[in-house]
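REVIEWER CHECKLIST
Item 1: Sequence provided? yes
Item 2: Single chain? yes
Item 3: Sequence as submitted:
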Amino acid sequence: MASIDAAPDVPQELILLGGSAGWMMSPAFLARFKSILLVDIDPWAPRLFRLRHGATLRRHAVRLDFLCGDVHELLDQALAAQPQACVLFDNFLGLDSIYTRNLEVTARRMRGIRQRMRGRLWGSVHDRLSGPGTADWRDAACWARDWTARSGHELPQQAFFASVQAQGPWLDHHTEHVLPPGLNTHLIAWPIVPGRWHWLEAAWVEGR
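Item 4: Structure as written out by the authors:
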């Protein structure tokens, strides 16, 4: 994903939270690091990650370590283990309100992440909205547009809905509090399956 690959100068260590098999990672991005700490609730994540990216990791001598469990519960342990690492939340924060079933709890957890990340280079890619749309994903005009916004400001929803021919109700993933306000962000249209679209937000935060 271009907006994640286009990170600022990064440390040699990466904490990858919720990375799973690394579906959204490019080899060029992973090769920038000497070590990666993958944190995921799925015990199969490191095996799948190596199946997808093992050749790149070996070629560039990138060490892969793994913590298995709830990402929120393991976050402080991961940060303590890698005090100089940059941190990437890889497309799982948008699921938080689905798990908690409590918008106040989710908002508090999202703001808490910003506090815990103070002083770190960190980034996130996460769902903002998702729902049905009849646009053909093979038409690049539907999803290749470079959408941008500022965090904490209103999204250009109507233009996006028109571009994917949105139908019916859409789900708000309540991730508006993930990033600090006023940050330039990238919005990415993602056709997850035919007839259903996700609108992702992605940005890097440099030490604030």
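Item 5: Key structural point noted by reviewer: The chain has a mean pLDDT of 85.
Item 6: Recommendation: ____
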